[in-house]
Write a structure and sequence with these properties.
Elements: E1 2-4, H1 7-14, H2 16-33, E2 39-44, E3 47-51, H3 57-73, E4 76-77, E5 83-84, E6 88-92, H4 103-119, E7 125-127, H5 129-135, H6 139-143, E8 174-178, H7 182-194, E9 198-202, H8 205-213, E10 220-223, H9 232-242, E11 249-253, H10 258-266, E12 271-274, H11 279-290, E13 303-305, E14 308-311, E15 316-319, E16 322-323, H12 328-339, H13 347-355, H14 365-376, E17 385-390, E18 394-399, H15 402-406
Parallel strand pairs: 6-7, 8-9, 8-10, 10-11, 11-12
Antiparallel strand pairs: 1-3, 1-6, 2-3, 4-5, 13-14, 14-15, 15-16, 17-18
């Protein structure tokens, strides 16, 4: 049994139309996880039931965790541009433990587990005690709420090898996701679906390469690094060597060594994000890559970003309405970052875009200018920005609170 947490509060504060939309998107998310022969229905209000025929208790728990993680990652977009998120509590009873009990008794058992999960703090999966003890599964491990897919059980029921999300208009970006862990894949797909992207998911590199060889195109590729068979790095090298469309590629990887990340970027990746990733940051990185390339952006267009306003005609930057004294090169450098938040720029990218030449690695010119604009623009928590840097990887302007910064 599943129950949407705090549903009454959602209805009271955002209206019944918002509640109805939440129910529809909740149901759609469920159908992306369960199998065709599983039975899903609404019991009443915000309470639902699922039956999983011919499924072990362990596999039932794994499926429930996948459902919980997907619902937690879901973002609901209301007509007034408000964004909502919801969570779900889940109670499980395994029928093989009591095969001759009436359905009302089994529902009662599941209901008991469900409301114990709510009493424990919501957004978690609990199994009825009798079933848990009979299967010899450790109680404490089952009762731990999973914070992210990386901590969820891994022996899950396999998701379909390719999942095509077709609920978006044809003009929306189509992304390819290469991820062999079905929990991570389902979680990432739900994040992309909530942001209105279309996605085709693959659990091995061979299938993705076959799709690309057949002439199918994607606006962006999200690649795991370590995969059975063909690795994400090998897929990256094939794409860069064979595709003229040159789609942006982002690694979503557990690797955190700077040497590995440099290797990926040098091989042609546009960006990377380390697991476990934050949904909002992942989407921001994707949008940064899908924006029109900086080489084709109209340089005469003025714009605003949070507390900053940039006038490209007068070549002036204002912070909270106050002009910042700034040189010509400082303006070019600051504008590059402000126009493209979240985009990773290598040192060579910056030197060619701002100075029109490659600056030797031994020169301190770039580092000095970066330090100056940090101070003059007051880039930091007070302005909702962070200019992050790695000598080997490059620089990116991060938005500490994107919704607030863009308002």
């Amino acid at each position: 049994m599943l129950d949407i947490d705090h549903f009454k509060h959602l209805n009271d504060h955002h209206g019944h139309a918002a509640g109805d939309q939440a129910l529809k998107e909740f149901a759609h998310s469920i159908y992306t996880i369960i199998r065709p022969h599983d039975l899903f229905g609404r019991i009443g209000g915000e309470e639902f039931g699922i039956t999983l025929p011919d499924t072990s208790l362990r596999a039932s728990i794994d499926t429930a965790e996948r459902l919980r993680a997907c619902i937690e990652a879901m973002v609901i977009h209301l007509p007034d541009n408000t964004r909502l998120s919801i969570t779900v509590s889940i109670g499980i009873v395994h029928v093989s433990q009591s095969p001759h009990k009436e359905i009302e008794i089994l529902l009662d058992y599941a209901d008991q587990a469900l409301y114990q999960a709510k009493r424990n703090g919501r957004n978690q999966v609990l199994v009825h005690d009798d079933a848990r003890l009979a299967q010899g599964i450790e109680v404490n491990k089952l009762n731990e709420p999973a914070a992210s897919p990386s901590s969820a059980p891994t022996s899950v029921i396999s998701a379909p090898r390719e999942i095509s999300m077709t609920t978006h208009p044809d003009h929306t970006p189509l992304l390819a996701l290469l991820e062999d862990d079905s929990v991570q894949s389902a979680w990432l797909q739900q994040i992309l679906l909530s942001a209105k992207f279309r996605c085709q998911a693959f659990d091995n590199g061979n299938d993705l390469l076959s799709t690309l060889r057949a002439g199918n195109t994607f606006q962006l590729l999200l690649l795991d690094w370590e995969l059975p068979g063909i690795s994400g790095m090998e897929v990256l090298r094939w794409v860069r060597a064979n595709l003229t469309s040159d789609p942006p590629i982002i690694f979503v990887t557990s690797r955190t060594l700077e040497s590995d990340l440099v290797k990926g970027l040098d091989a042609g990746a546009n960006d990377y994000i380390c697991k476990p990733c934050r949904p909002a940051e992942l989407l921001a990185r994707i949008r940064a890559q899908l924006r029109p390339n900086h080489a084709h952006t109209n340089p005469a267009s003025s714009f605003e970003l949070g507390v900053y306003s940039v006038d490209t005609l007068t070549r002036q930057i204002k912070l909270r309405g106050e002009p910042i004294p700034i040189t010509s090169k400082e303006f070019d450098l600051a504008t590059l970052f402000l126009r493209h938040p979240w985009r990773l720029f290598s040192r060579d990218d910056i030197s060619m875009l701002v100075w029109n030449r490659k600056i030797p690695s031994t020169s301190r010119t770039l580092d000095t200018h970066i330090s100056i604009i940090r101070k003059k623009l007051q880039l930091g928590p007070a302005s909702g920005t962070l200019l992050s840097s790695s000598y080997a990887l490059g620089y990116r302007l991060e938005l500490l609170d994107e919704e607030k910064t863009r308002s």
